[in-house]
């Protein structure tokens, strides 16, 4: 097959024209091919065919070919996307806009039962059709037909065609259709889909060199587009963060205008989201996330700022509710808890992945702050995370404050339920969160008491069965894999049972790391060593397992230093150096 046949044609024609006119610069524009076959499925070929020609012609020395992207842009400006490019007047207009001296135009005149291609070469300055011809043959011989067309033109000019570069062309019309669809998708900005189509085409036809080249180009464009999109997103985020800081620094909650107050409260929530996002570089990359070595001070500073922001939100939402709450005829109270950013700012926020509006009540504000203080739970506008150590783990006052907030949320919810029964979910969530915080601290009996309060106060709730099952699990009446493994691990400090340690390692570490952070990993290892070192039931391979498992728990979270520390212990416990290297290679991509 001779894919670059038209290349030779245009090269010869341009060479002859330039020689006659003494031109120093030869600029050619390849226009899209028209589909005159009355078969719409071939419309997409107009771009693909032209794109292949541009690629071929660009390899010709002393020939300047107008990039197809420039033509695509010009067609949009001139609103000529649906024009008939084979028309000389249209070709001249486009050629002038592109600064070309020659334009190559073509048309598929028929596909079935025979393929016919008409082609013209037009001199832009005069509008004169320099060359016009056609070829007819089987459509699966598309590129052979191009070769015939070249030979006719060259013979007519009494010149010898120059050697053509070896370039694998489309193996058949179907492959050219696929190529053209991918090119068209890329033009419409759908780079990801275009790249996937081209990738599939290259996989199916590995020798289709032009498709392979176009695939690489699309990958590069896709990367550039992704980077540009990320820059736009980051710019939007920085602008929003600055705006939130300015508004909140401007004074107290504006209670003279409800909409302004709603905007202000939304900025307060956004401030919290940005503080959570600022935590990201300082904490481990997987749940449970903990402050990384060298980042502890900054992580604690940001968590303290989150606490302050949460306290401010509670004060402000209480004042807002007191000012704007209305009493309805049925005795229920109502205020608009839908706080939102100004419309123009909200549009920027969405670019950054931050919601434009939030639902905030005195009850929800208290629950959210309690979850931060007692459980380390944070929300960045997209995802919820647990960050350790929880603020209350090192400050008894913060722990007491967290429990007090949940008691207040419970009270507010019960009061609101008198006229708004659907708020039972808020009550259940407040009591369940209280139970979760107690369980994290191994205060099982107190946690069961909080869960029992739900059953006592809301016996008709749809959640009754779920809460009852939770109580049965904590009492050991119903089997639960996680709780069973956790309990077995705790018991193993007394029994030194190998399998109990292995089964419950992740469950125990998850709970302790959430509560105390990174130090819990080393503390757990030390507890095992203190309790069971020298126990004759435990073989050397048990200790190798303990050290490598603790190391991997830290390493996959980006804590390479702790992985190395545990790796040394692993080797000292007769662990395999080659296995250690394999663990690092396969599981610790971020650890060099």
How is this structure best summarized?
This protein is 61% helix and 10% strand. By secondary structure, the protein is of the alpha/beta class.
Walk me through the structure:
Strands 1, 2, 3, 4, 5 and 6 form a six-stranded mixed β-sheet that branches. 61% of the residues lie in helices and 10% in strands. The chain has three domains: 5-167, Rossmann fold (3-Layer(aba) Sandwich), CATH 3.40.50; 233-431, no CATH class; 482-587, no CATH class. By secondary structure, it is α/β, with parallel strands linked by helices. β5 (115-123) and β6 form a beta hairpin. Residues 18-24 and 153-162 have low confidence and may be disordered.
List the helices and strands and how they pair.
Elements: H1 5-21, E1 26-30, E2 34-35, H2 45-57, E3 63-65, H3 68-78, H4 88-98, E4 102-110, E5 115-123, E6 128-137, H5 142-156, H6 173-187, H7 191-204, H8 209-249, H9 258-279, E7 289-290, H10 296-324, E8 326-327, E9 333-334, E10 338-340, H11 343-351, E11 357-359, H12 362-375, E12 377-379, E13 384-388, H13 396-416, H14 424-440, H15 444-457, H16 464-475, H17 481-495, H18 498-516, H19 519-532, H20 540-555, H21 560-572, H22 577-587
Parallel strand pairs: 1-3, 1-4, 2-4, 7-13
Antiparallel strand pairs: 4-5, 5-6, 8-9, 10-11, 12-13
Helix pairs in contact: 1-5, 2-6, 6-7, 7-8, 8-9, 8-11, 9-10, 10-12, 12-13, 12-14, 13-14, 14-15, 15-16, 17-18, 18-19, 18-20, 20-21
């Amino acid at each position: 097959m001779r894919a670059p046949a038209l290349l030779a044609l245009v090269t010869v024609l341009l060479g002859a024209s330039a020689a006659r006119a003494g031109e120093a610069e030869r600029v050619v524009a390849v226009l899209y091919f028209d589909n005159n076959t009355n078969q719409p499925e071939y419309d997409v070929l107009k771009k693909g065919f032209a794109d292949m020609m541009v690629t071929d012609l660009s390899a010709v020395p002393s020939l300047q070919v107008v990039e197809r992207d420039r033509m695509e842009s010009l067609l949009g400006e001139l609103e000529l996307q649906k024009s008939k490019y084979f028309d000389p007047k249209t070709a001249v207009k486009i050629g002038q806009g592109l600064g070309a001296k020659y334009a190559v135009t073509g048309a598929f005149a028929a596909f079935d039962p025979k393929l016919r291609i008409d082609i013209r070469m037009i001199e832009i300055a005069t509008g004169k059709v320099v060359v016009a011809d056609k070829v007819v043959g089987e459509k699966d011989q598309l590129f052979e037909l191009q070769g015939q067309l070249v030979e006719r033109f060259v013979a007519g000019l009494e010149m010898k065609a120059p050697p053509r570069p070896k370039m694998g062309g489309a193996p058949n019309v179907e492959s050219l259709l696929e190529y053209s669809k991918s090119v068209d998708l890329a033009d419409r900005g759908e780079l990801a889909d275009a790249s996937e189509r081209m990738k599939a085409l290259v996989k199916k036809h590995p020798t289709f060199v032009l498709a392979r080249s176009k695939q690489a180009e699309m990958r590069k464009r896709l990367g550039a587009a992704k980077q540009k999109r990320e820059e736009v997103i980051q710019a939007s985020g920085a602008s929003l963060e600055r705006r939130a800081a300015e508004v909140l620094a401007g004074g107290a909650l504006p209670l003279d205008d409800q909409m302004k107050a709603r905007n202000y409260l939304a900025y307060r929530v956004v401030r919290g989201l940005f503080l959570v996002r600022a935590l990201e570089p300082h904490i481990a990359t997987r749940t449970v996330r903990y402050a990384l070595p060298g980042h502890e001070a900054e992580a604690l500073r940001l968590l303290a700022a989150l606490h302050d922001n949460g306290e401010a939100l509670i004060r402000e939402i209480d004042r807002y509710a007191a000012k704007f709450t209305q009493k309805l005829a049925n005795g229920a109270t109502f205020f608009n808890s839908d706080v939102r950013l100004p419309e123009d700012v909200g549009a920027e926020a969405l670019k950054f992945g931050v919601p434009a509006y939030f639902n905030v009540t005195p009850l929800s504000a208290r629950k959210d702050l309690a979850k931060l203080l007692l459980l380390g739970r944070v929300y960045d506008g997209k995802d919820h995370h647990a960050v350790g150590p929880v603020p209350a783990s090192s400050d008894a006052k913060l722990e007491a404050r967290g429990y007090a907030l949940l008691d207040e949320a419970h009270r507010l919810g019960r009061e609101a339920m008198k006229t708004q029964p659907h708020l039972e979910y808020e009550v259940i969530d407040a009591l369940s969160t209280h139970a979760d915080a107690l369980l994290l601290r191994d205060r099982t009996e107190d946690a069961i008491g909080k869960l029992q309060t739900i059953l006592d106060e809301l016996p008709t709730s749809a959640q009754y069965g779920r809460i009852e099952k939770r109580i049965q699990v904590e009492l050991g009446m119903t089997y639960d894999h996680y709780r069973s493994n956790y309990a077995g691990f705790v018991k193993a400090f007394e029994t030194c049972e190998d399998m109990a340690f292995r089964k419950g390692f992740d469950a125990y570490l998850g709970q302790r790391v959430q509560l105390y952070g990174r130090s819990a990993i080393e503390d757990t290892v030390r507890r095992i060593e203190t309790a069971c070192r020298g126990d004759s039931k435990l073989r050397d391979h048990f200790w190798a397992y303990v050290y490598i498992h603790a190391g991997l728990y830290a390493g996959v979270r980006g804590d390479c230093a702790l992985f190395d520390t545990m790796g040394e212990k692993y080797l000292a416990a007769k662990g395999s150096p080659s296995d250690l290297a394999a663990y690092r290679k396969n599981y610790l991509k971020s650890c060099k």
